[in-house]
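Researcher: Following up on the earlier apo prediction. This time include the ligand. It's zinc ion, with the SMILES given after the sequence.
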Amino acid sequence: MMLIPCMACESRFRPDEYFRACHDYNRGRDMVAWTCPRCGNQDELRVLPGELGFGYPRRGRFDVSDRVRVPGLQRRRQDLRLDISLDEKVWRVPTGRRGLVGAR
Ligand SMILES: [Zn+2]
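Model: Understood. Below is the ligand-bound prediction.
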């Protein structure tokens, strides 16, 4: 069973619990916000094929500094959301207000 950690409290989550906590896709920076269901810490990450990239927003970009492998993870960018899929499940992360601004 693949478990994905919170970088702040080190709780580990099953993919369904983890990806349901993603929100506010920022298309311009290609990142999603994530709020930990346990400790409430908010993180930002990029969903990539086969891995999650953690890092920092900087000057309108998002620089990945740490990666967590999630075998089979896929992503598809839509106009107003990011679709994340793994093991035939799909999680839809709507574009947040800031994400809309960043996409222009
Ligand atoms: Zn946490």
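Model: The first helix runs from residue 15 to 20.
Researcher: Noted. I'll compare it with the apo version next.
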